[in-house]
């Protein structure tokens, strides 16, 4: 009794989905307001207030979307890896919900990163796509995200799917740095001293501050969307279990009716 | 250990028998290499330049296509349950099954490579290099593919999904395999550096593959 009375807001306390949902409802509105404010301020600073680049002109503003999206694309995978550990090691009941909610978000941020990079590349490099090491490894990350989502959708039972995806996520976490390294090797082998590396001039504060604000805003956005997606997933699983329960009841009802119909089969009248 | 030996012999026998499809992979390899010149033209200089890449792509696809039955046949007839309940660690079982799988599907590809290299006008040093890289690299493909096979073992049509999941993870092997092969024939590029990295990758996948595949098999059979 004494243990249950203590209100624990540790991670184990949140293992109860109902308590987790209650907490989400409490913090959701302030979180959304904060996100809107930070992204609004960030967009103003990035798109209107910040100076144009002396070489790139206004196209430099694409960076304020592109770079935070790239960070979040990698952050989402890290999030999924921690969730995968939660599924396999601690068997936390919300871990696979978190992993499932993070996968489409990670894919979306990766996609945003690739698309904005492509929009920037067309006027700057004169092409939509080059097989540069960074671009290629981002594309592979997108494919890995899509593969994980495909695996989620291939296995019907959410618990089994969660474990399978967790294993693949962990394997990916080990191999993705190797892929990144090998793509660097491959690219430098074919086009040495690439001019496309973005290690250029040191960034001025007038650009760095908007970028940081946008990064915080994107992180908040990810958090909001992640929580919302987790809530949806929990509700979806409840609906699923309710549907299965209902189907089981119908099935057992049918079976009872069938046995009743079968037992007085000697009687000539009723069922036929 | 004798149980593992028996498992190895059993898997080999099953793959050689009718319905096993051990030589299907080589046939597939041959047809992939054959259709490439139809697409890129019969220019022998061009083929000599991209020959190692064609051979690697062919070997990669042939290995992946034969992998989807690695655990599925055992799952269907109940052998997998016995293996899971047995006293031997599942990681070792996976390793032995991968070894048998490689002997029956991977090694024929390596043996066929010198002959197919001649079709592609690869020069003798290049032939030796491609064969060596495939000898070292195809076990890595089988081992990492085993993870995909274990993840998709309960699915009806897991073959396509297996390729989608595993192909991104094979990119490092492909890169270093092809660059070592090309390094042997083109002058400034080195052969040994990518070759040693390829060996290292194979060793790494030797660790990751059985552990992850065993974990996937356990979770799928719960």
TrEMBL record, chain A:
GO terms (molecular function) for this protein are: heme binding; heme transmembrane transporter activity
- A GO cellular component annotation in the UniProt record: plasma membrane
Q: Kindly give the membrane topology term recorded for this protein.
A: Multi-pass membrane protein
| Keyword Lipoprotein applies | no
Give the superkingdom in one word.
Bacteria
Annotated family: Belongs to the CcmC/CycZ/HelC family.
Q: What does this protein do?
A: Required for the export of heme to the periplasm for the biogenesis of c-type cytochromes.
Q: What is this protein called?
A: Heme exporter protein C
Automatic annotation (TrEMBL), chain B:
Q: Which domain of life is it from?
A: Bacteria
Job description of the protein: Required for the export of heme to the periplasm for the biogenesis of c-type cytochromes.
Q: Name one GO cellular component term.
A: plasma membrane
Q: Which family does it belong to?
A: Belongs to the CcmB/CycW/HelB family.
Q: Name one GO molecular function term.
A: heme transmembrane transporter activity
For membrane topology, the record states: Multi-pass membrane protein
**Keyword tags:** Cell inner membrane, Cell membrane, Cytochrome c-type biogenesis, Membrane, Transmembrane, Transmembrane helix, Transport
Write the protein's name.
Heme exporter protein B
Give the main localization category.
Answer: membrane
Subcellular location(s): the record lists: Cell inner membrane
Has keyword Cell inner membrane?
yes
- Which GO BP annotation is one of this protein's? cytochrome complex assembly
Q: Which residues cross the membrane?
A: 21-40, 46-67, 102-120, 126-153, 160-183, 195-217
């Amino acid at each position: 009794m004494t243990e249950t009375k203590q209100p624990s807001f540790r991670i184990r306390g949140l293992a109860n989905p109902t308590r987790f949902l209650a907490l989400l409802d409490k913090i959701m509105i302030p979180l959304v307001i904060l996100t809107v404010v930070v992204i609004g301020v960030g967009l103003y600073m990035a798109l209107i207030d910040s100076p144009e680049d002396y070489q790139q002109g206004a196209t430099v503003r694409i960076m304020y979307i592109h770079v935070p999206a790239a960070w979040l694309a990698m952050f989402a995978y890290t999030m999924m890896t921690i969730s995968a550990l939660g599924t396999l090691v601690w068997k936390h009941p919300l871990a696979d919900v978190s992993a499932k909610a993070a996968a489409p978000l990670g894919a979306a941020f990766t996609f945003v990163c690739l698309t904005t990079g492509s929009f920037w590349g067309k006027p700057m490099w004169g092409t939509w796509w080059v097989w540069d090491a960074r671009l290629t490894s981002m594309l592979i990350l997108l494919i890995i995200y899509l593969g994980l989502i495909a695996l989620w959708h291939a296995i019907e039972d959410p618990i089994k799917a969660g474990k399978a995806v967790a294993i693949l996520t962990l394997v990916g976490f080990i191999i993705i740095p190797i892929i990144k390294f090998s793509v660097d090797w491959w690219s430098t082998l074919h086009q040495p001293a690439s001019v496309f590396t973005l290690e250029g001039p040191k960034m001025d504060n007038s650009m760095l501050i908007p970028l940081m604000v946008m990064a915080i805003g994107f992180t908040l956005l990810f958090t909001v969307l992640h929580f919302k997606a987790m809530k949806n997933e929990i509700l979806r699983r409840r609906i699923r279990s309710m549907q299965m329960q209902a189907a089981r009841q119908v099935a057992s009802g049918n079976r009872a009716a069938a046995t009743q119909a079968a037992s007085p089969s000697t009687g000539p009248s009723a069922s036929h | 250990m004798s149980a593992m030996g028996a498992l190895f012999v059993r898997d080999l026998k099953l793959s050689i028998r009718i319905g096993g499809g051990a030589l299907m992979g080589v046939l597939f390899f041959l047809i992939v290499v054959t259709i490439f010149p139809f697409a890129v033209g019969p220019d022998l200089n061009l083929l000599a330049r991209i020959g190692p890449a064609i051979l690697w792509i062919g070997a990669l696809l042939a290995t992946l296509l034969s992998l989807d039955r690695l655990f599925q046949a055992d799952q269907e007839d109940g052998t997998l349950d016995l293996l899971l309940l047995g006293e031997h660690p599942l990681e070792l079982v996976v390793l032995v099954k991968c070894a048998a799988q490689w002997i029956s599907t991977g090694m024929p590809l390596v043996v066929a490579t010198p002959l197919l290299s001649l079709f592609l006008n690869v020069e003798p040093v290049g032939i030796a290099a491609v064969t060596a890289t495939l000898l070292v690299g195809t076990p890595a493909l089988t081992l990492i593919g085993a993870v995909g096979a274990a993840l998709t073992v309960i699915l009806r049509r897991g073959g396509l999904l297996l390729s989608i999941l595993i192909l991104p993870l094979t990119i490092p092997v492909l890169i270093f395999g092809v660059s070592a092969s090309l390094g042997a024939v083109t002058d400034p590029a080195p052969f040994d550096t990518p070759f040693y990295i390829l060996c290292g990758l194979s060793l790494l996948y030797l660790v990751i593959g059985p552990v992850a595949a065993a974990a996937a098999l356990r979770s799928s059979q719960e």
